[in-house]
Specification:
The protein is an all-alpha fold and 97 residues long. It is built from 3 helices and no strands. The chain has helices spanning 8-15, 37-42, 48-92. The two termini are 55 Å apart. The structure holds zinc ion. Zinc ion (ZN) binds at residues 19, 21-22, 24, 35, 37.
Protein backbone atom coordinates (compact mmCIF):
# COMPACT_ATOMS: atom_id res chain seq x y z
CA UNK A 1 0.00 0.00 0.00
CA UNK A 2 1.52 3.29 -1.05
CA UNK A 3 -0.59 5.38 1.32
CA UNK A 4 0.71 3.74 4.45
CA UNK A 5 2.63 5.68 7.06
CA UNK A 6 6.38 5.19 7.09
CA UNK A 7 8.02 3.08 9.70
CA UNK A 8 10.58 4.69 11.97
CA UNK A 9 13.35 3.24 9.79
CA UNK A 10 11.77 4.59 6.63
CA UNK A 11 11.51 8.04 8.22
CA UNK A 12 15.20 8.02 8.99
CA UNK A 13 15.93 6.92 5.44
CA UNK A 14 13.65 9.65 4.13
CA UNK A 15 15.48 12.29 6.17
CA UNK A 16 18.66 11.50 4.27
CA UNK A 17 17.99 13.13 0.92
CA UNK A 18 17.78 12.18 -1.88
CA UNK A 19 14.42 10.57 -1.28
CA UNK A 20 14.69 6.78 -1.16
CA UNK A 21 11.28 6.50 -2.81
CA UNK A 22 11.58 8.79 -5.81
CA UNK A 23 15.05 10.28 -5.70
CA UNK A 24 13.83 13.83 -5.10
CA UNK A 25 16.55 16.08 -3.70
CA UNK A 26 15.56 19.69 -4.00
CA UNK A 27 13.76 22.57 -2.33
CA UNK A 28 10.71 22.02 -0.12
CA UNK A 29 11.71 18.42 0.42
CA UNK A 30 9.24 18.13 3.31
CA UNK A 31 6.37 19.87 1.50
CA UNK A 32 3.84 17.27 0.26
CA UNK A 33 2.53 19.67 -2.41
CA UNK A 34 6.03 19.87 -3.90
CA UNK A 35 7.31 16.41 -2.99
CA UNK A 36 4.41 13.93 -2.64
CA UNK A 37 6.43 11.38 -0.62
CA UNK A 38 6.57 13.92 2.22
CA UNK A 39 2.89 13.20 2.78
CA UNK A 40 3.80 9.68 3.93
CA UNK A 41 6.56 11.08 6.10
CA UNK A 42 4.12 13.35 7.92
CA UNK A 43 1.51 10.66 8.45
CA UNK A 44 1.36 9.36 12.01
CA UNK A 45 3.00 6.00 12.52
CA UNK A 46 0.89 2.96 13.15
CA UNK A 47 1.00 2.38 16.85
CA UNK A 48 -1.02 -0.02 18.96
CA UNK A 49 -2.77 3.04 20.35
CA UNK A 50 -3.72 4.48 16.96
CA UNK A 51 -4.77 1.07 15.66
CA UNK A 52 -6.95 0.55 18.72
CA UNK A 53 -8.60 3.89 18.09
CA UNK A 54 -9.20 2.92 14.47
CA UNK A 55 -10.59 -0.42 15.60
CA UNK A 56 -12.92 1.20 18.12
CA UNK A 57 -14.23 3.56 15.43
CA UNK A 58 -14.71 0.67 13.04
CA UNK A 59 -16.62 -1.34 15.63
CA UNK A 60 -18.83 1.63 16.40
CA UNK A 61 -19.65 1.97 12.72
CA UNK A 62 -20.30 -1.75 12.44
CA UNK A 63 -22.60 -1.69 15.47
CA UNK A 64 -24.51 1.20 13.93
CA UNK A 65 -24.94 -0.75 10.69
CA UNK A 66 -25.99 -3.79 12.68
CA UNK A 67 -28.69 -1.77 14.43
CA UNK A 68 -29.84 -0.35 11.10
CA UNK A 69 -29.83 -3.79 9.48
CA UNK A 70 -31.78 -5.27 12.38
CA UNK A 71 -34.45 -2.57 12.24
CA UNK A 72 -34.67 -2.92 8.46
CA UNK A 73 -35.03 -6.66 8.83
CA UNK A 74 -37.81 -6.24 11.39
CA UNK A 75 -39.56 -3.74 9.12
CA UNK A 76 -39.20 -6.19 6.25
CA UNK A 77 -40.83 -8.97 8.31
CA UNK A 78 -43.71 -6.69 9.28
CA UNK A 79 -44.20 -5.64 5.67
CA UNK A 80 -44.15 -9.25 4.54
CA UNK A 81 -46.84 -10.06 7.13
CA UNK A 82 -48.96 -7.20 5.75
CA UNK A 83 -48.45 -8.48 2.20
CA UNK A 84 -49.45 -12.00 3.29
CA UNK A 85 -52.57 -10.73 5.08
CA UNK A 86 -53.65 -8.68 2.08
CA UNK A 87 -53.06 -11.58 -0.32
CA UNK A 88 -55.07 -13.85 1.95
CA UNK A 89 -57.92 -11.33 1.98
CA UNK A 90 -57.90 -11.08 -1.82
CA UNK A 91 -57.93 -14.89 -2.04
CA UNK A 92 -60.88 -15.06 0.39
CA UNK A 93 -62.77 -12.71 -1.92
CA UNK A 94 -62.06 -15.13 -4.75
CA UNK A 95 -59.44 -13.06 -6.55
CA UNK A 96 -55.94 -13.84 -7.72
CA UNK A 97 -53.40 -12.00 -5.55
ZN1 LIG B 1 10.14 11.17 -2.86
Amino acid sequence: MSDQAMTREDKLRFERAPCYLCGYNSHDYYQPNVHPCAKLYHMPEDTVESLREELAQMKQERDGWHRDATSHLMALCEKQAEVNALEAKISELGGQP
